[in-house]
Write a structure and sequence with these properties.
Blueprint (H helix, E strand, L loop, with lengths): L4 E6 L11 E6 L4 H10 L4 E3 L5 E3 L4 E7 L6 E4 L2 E5 L4 H10 L2 E2 L11 H6 L3 E2 L2 E2 L4 E8 L4 E6 L11 H5 L2 E8 L1 E2 L2 H18 L20 H7 L6 E2 L2 E3 L7 E3 L5 H19 L8 E3 L4 H10 L4
Parallel strand pairs: 2-5, 3-5, 4-18
Antiparallel strand pairs: 1-2, 6-7, 7-13, 8-14, 9-10, 11-12, 11-13, 15-16, 16-17
Helix pairs in contact: 7-8
Amino acid sequence: MENNSIKDFDIKTLTSFKIGGKIGEVFFPENIEQFSKIMEQNKNIKVFGNLSNTLISSYGYNEKIILTTKMNSIKIEGTKVIADCGVKGPKLAQEVAQKGLSGLEFMIGFPGSIGGEVYMNASANSQAISDCLIYATCFDPKEQCVKKYTKDELGFAYRTSRCQKENLIVLQVEFELKQKTVDEIKSKMEENLSFRKNHQPSLALPNCGSVFKNPQGDSAGRLLDSIGAKNMYVGGVKVWENHANFIVNTNNGSSTDVLELMYKMYTEVKNRYNIELEPEIIFLGSNNDKENELCKILYKTK
C-alpha cells in the first residue's frame, strides 16, 4: 500500500448497499496530517466515510477518492470525548456508555461514521449530534487548510449544518457528555435499537438508509406509500415492504437497478403530486451512459 493508497480498488464489500465496481485509486489517511497532505496533492478529490449512504456505480469510478475509515481514534478524558471522523457511530456509543457517559445513545443504530453524522447533524429519538458537540476540526477545501469551529459557528439545524453549505470536511470532533448510570444509558440504547428495527431495514439486508429527503412539510415515505411503491422492484433490488422510502438489495442488484427503481419512484410521485423528490443517497460514478441519463433527472446533473 503505497502512500496509504490502493489502485484499482474493489469497493463493493465496503459499501452498505454491497454494490460497486473498481475505484481508480483509494487513499486511507490515518490522521489529520496525512489527510491534509493528500488533499494538498490532489485538488478536488472526493471524500467519503463509512459509505453507508453512498451508491457506487457497478461500472466503477476512474478517479481517486479518500476513505476516512482508518481515522478512528477515540480519547475519553472525564466527560470530554474526542473522536476522529472515521469512528463508527455504534462503536462510539458503546465506548462512552461503558464509562457512564450519556448523550450519544441515539447513535447505537446508525451505520454511519462521526464525520458524516456531524456533516448532516444526524438525529433520532429526541437526540441530535449537535446537542453535546463543543468543537469540530474541519478541512476547508476552498482555503485548503484545517480549521477548528465551535458549535455555534457550525450553524446546526434539522439534518443540516454549515459543513454542507461550505463543503467542509469534518476530521475530528469534541463532545462534552453527561454522567449517568450505565444501566440508564443501556436502556435508552435498547429503546433506540428497537425503534430503528421497526422503522428501518437491518443492515443484514443491504440498503443505504432513506432514499429520498422529506419534502418541506411532508414525508417522502408517505408519498411513496400512497403511489404503491412497496410493490416496486427492478432487477435484484426492491422497495422494502415495511417502509416505502428504503431500497434493499435482495438479489445481487446493480447500481443501474437502484437508479432505475429510484427513477420509477420519483416519476410516480411527480406525476401524482407534482413534487420532485430529492435523493438523500449520494451517487458516485460516470462510466455508464444509462446511469448518466438517470442522474441528469434524479440529481439534476448536467
